[in-house]
Amino acid sequence: MNRRDILVIGGSRGAFNVLRLLAMTLPVELPAAVCIVLHVGRHDSVLPTLMSRWGRLPASHPANGEMFAKGRIYIAPPDRHLLLSPQCRLLLDDGAAENFTRPAVDPLFRSAAHHYGARVVGVVLSGDLDDGAAGLAAIRAHGGYGIVQEPADCETASMPRAALAAAGADAIVGAEQLTQQIIAALDGAPRKEPIPMNTPILDLEARVAQRAVVQPEELDQIGERSPLTCPDCGGTLWRIRDDHPLRYRCHTGHAFSALSLAEGHEKVEENAIWTAIRALNERIIFARERQLWAQRVGDKKQMDIEQARIDEGTTLAQTLGELLKSAAP
Fold first, then answer.
1. pLDDT tens digits, the chain, 329 residues: what are they?
2. Residue 21 vs residues 12, 50, 135, 262, 306: alpha-carbon distances, Å
3. Apex CA 53: angle with CA 52 and CA 54, to 5°?
4. Theoretical Cys-Cys bridge with 107: which of 81, 142, 220, 240, CB 3.0 to 4.6 Å?
5. H helices within 78-152, ranges in order?
């Protein structure tokens, strides 16, 4: 049997209670280092303290460059990506957000797959959108083992569903069976056939993702320039030449899988509509001020012109407001 000794876990909304159960049930002699990304953004996190209290394995936010060891839990700190590097070291990265989050799951999974291949077990838990889908696909493409929380068992099933669509899984389990399945995977449980991926592109993508500055020519090696723009910075997006999952990257480092990119563009569209509504409201206010001026000077013709502007602006603003309501989930 091919034993595995690196466990990487990612989750978002709904994953907190699963991590609590996991901490309570993982054995103290766990023959693997555990790395976790929970979407916390820039908010302070007491998750290491809680997981240490809940279970028998010590948990911490690692220092940059710290060596990882079996039987310990390492949790990505707020606003920093957690990466695995060669020589069993952990890196903290403050580069661009991926899938609109930092820390993100994909950078951890991708770095684990790139450097440790078949030694890795990746786990995708409950969460919104699709962070972790590309990362789990990379793990399975490099010979690692993939576990996905049963979507019906999740508070939010989007991340597990996206992972299954992009990567498939070697096991799909509920929270109650997760520890048992992790132990089986570490002990060498057989893998299922992974979805084919372009491994050379994955390796290039992993190297590009860890670069602070990326030249367009480097992105040309892993993707095709797209007419779409980055919803974070407005830069050109490259569509990665691998469809599991469909994903994009810009030269400043922002990266998106399809669901996250769609969400970003929806927010850009909504902001644009609100900007238009604000401009129309200002137009209406200005027309009313001019109408009052016309009234004071006795200019009836100008009063009628300003009223027409007020009516037109009000109609347009109401139309845009209805558009926002119809687009709301």
1. 578 999 999 999 999 999 999 999 999 999 999 999 999 878 889 999 999 999 999 999 999 999 999 999 999 999 999 999 999 999 999 989 999 999 999 999 999 999 999 999 999 999 999 999 999 999 999 999 999 999 999 999 999 999 999 999 999 999 999 999 999 999 999 999 887 877 788 888 888 887 777 888 989 999 999 999 999 888 899 999 888 889 999 988 899 998 899 888 888 888 888 899 999 999 999 999 999 999 999 999 999 999 999 999 999 989 988 887 776 65
2. 15, 11, 24, 33, 65
3. 95
4. 81
5. 105-116, 133-141
pTM of the model: 0.85
Give CA–CA dist 107/134, Å, rounded: 9
Alpha carbon distance 179, 182 (integer Å):
5
b/e string for 276-314 if b means 16 or more Cβ within 10 A? Answer: ebeebeebbeebeebbeebeeeeeeeebeebeebbeebe
Q: Rounded to whole angstroms, how far apart are CA atoms 147 and 63? A: 27
The label of the residue with tokens 């007419």 reads 227
Q: How far apart are CA 288 and CA 309, in angstroms?
A: 9
Report the distance separating Cα 195 and Cα 181, nearest Å: 21
Enumerate the active-site residues: 12, 39, 131
Tokens 């013709």 map to which residue? 301
Q: How far is CA 142 from the centre of its chain?
A: 21
Distance (Å, whole) CA 93 – CA 62? 12
The fold adopted by the segment(s) 6-186 is Rossmann fold (3.40.50)
Q: What angle do CA 74, 79, 84 make, to 5 degrees?
A: 40
From first CA to last CA, the distance across the chain in angstroms is 48
Q: What share of the chain is helix, strand, coil (3-state, %, to 5)?
A: 45, 20, 35
Report how far residue 108's alpha carbon sits from residue 158's, in angstroms, rounded to the nearest whole number: 19
